[in-house]
């Protein structure tokens, strides 16, 4: 991540490109939190009820506005806005703030202090809870601006296309963005799996995160954002920039028109599959060019459950996903509870280090019934299929680390006529992939966790995005070992982490010998177009170049040169 100046005075800020695409427009910065000056004296006792009233009214105004936006938005945007409005109205922080006001603190400072308490608690809890701190900060800033009678902070409402820049973006900032007006997102913080990246992917606009030095680009500066290279360039010749934008528009047209199956230019078929989390998502994914489901994250169905759903209830949920894909392959992942996805009924509370704790298959190590009941439910759902279609219900376990775990899991699956596989997320599995393959029928590489555990870097940390980058040659080497073991055993090896959705990385993965790629359904056509434009030999050259590089950025640059050159 750096800022460089070329002889033509073009300045380039570099970050981690997470959604490909090229846009050219002036920078518009997200408006910062308004400054507040602390009061020198406490609010007089007789004025405190009115001050509390002022706070209540400000919260209501902010929440009303968010709800109004939620009612006009659709889909995820609407859900995100409604959730932020609910958090604004949350009794917990409002009670803490009102208590402070009743003790003489001004409404603005009470809001800041009360929300700070909640942020500290959420950060301590870690994982998904820590991610909610962005929403809390967002609410704090909106309420304080309302109290001060200032315009709402956050995303400006432009009347011409802009590149939206920010330190970080809250869900409420990005929900409802118009991709005709906001043509790229660039943030100083955030990682490849951050909320900003997810929203950009949905909007189909390029996105770069972890771009330090971004602040040097002032409001109104014309910049070219290249979401593949991860660069934001100011001072470019307009003609050259426009040519690049047009070439990208051409690529997008090809993406819209692309039809599967996935295959390289010389005809090597690569199964392109969808990642889903429930029946509704599977129904949408089934309308894409996905040839099946490569990762059904079952734990996401139960995030709000207080107790374990019984076998019948579970099987209805699994059947919805199987039915959405008719007779096609569906890979069901058993509960990956724990760490950033705690389930009240399955995970251990208060672990010191939950990402290294009892998560994934380890929860079943403590309570085998959790796993066997889930497998019973999957088998029951699979029974609605017959013959060859039933054989396309595959099951895999997350966070496997040892061979006996894999053997135990495989036995439980086979007892139920389910095809067993495991995820490759822990480096020990990649290192011994050939021996794991003696027990299971397939491997699926979870590059999100494999990167986290290979690089010893928290995947949730916005500060470590360059380490948790699957382009890291160390991670690619483990993928290569796994794919080669699969080839030797004649068994499929897929990738179902975010890496599969990166079009250039997808080609590298094919060059390494991976047989299927599973990703958000919205990414499939982009990957399909890229694969269709290269032959296997080019993928292999790109893979060799990436493996030989010293770091993630060099690996990506070398692979892109080998593929596009
Ligand atoms: C992964 O780790 O790459 C993966 C697909 O699993 P999750 O992101 O759900 O942990
Ligand atoms: Mg994982």
Q: What do these coordinates show?
A:
The protein is α/β, with parallel strands linked by helices and 565 residues long. The chain has 3 domains: 129 residues, Phosphohistidine domain (Glucose Oxidase, domain 1, 3-Layer(bba) Sandwich), CATH 3.50.30; 103 residues, PtsI, HPr-binding domain (Enzyme I, Chain A, domain 2); 307 residues, Phosphoenolpyruvate-binding domains (TIM Barrel, Alpha-Beta Barrel). 46% of the residues lie in helices and 14% in strands. It is built from 23 helices and 17 strands. Strands 1-2-9-8-4-5-6-7-3 form a 9-stranded mixed beta sheet. An 8-stranded parallel β-barrel has the order 10-11-12-13-14-15-16-17, surrounded by 6 helices. Helix 7 links the parallel strand 5 and strand 6. The longest helix has 25 residues. It starts with a strand and ends with a helix. Bound molecules: phosphoenolpyruvate and magnesium ion. Phosphoenolpyruvate binds next to strand 11 and helix 18.
Summarize the structure.
The protein is α/β, with parallel strands linked by helices.
Key words describing this protein structure:
Glucose Oxidase, domain 1; Enzyme I, Chain A, domain 2; TIM Barrel; 3 domains; 9-stranded mixed β-sheet; 8-stranded parallel β-barrel; 46% helix; binds phosphoenolpyruvate; binds magnesium ion
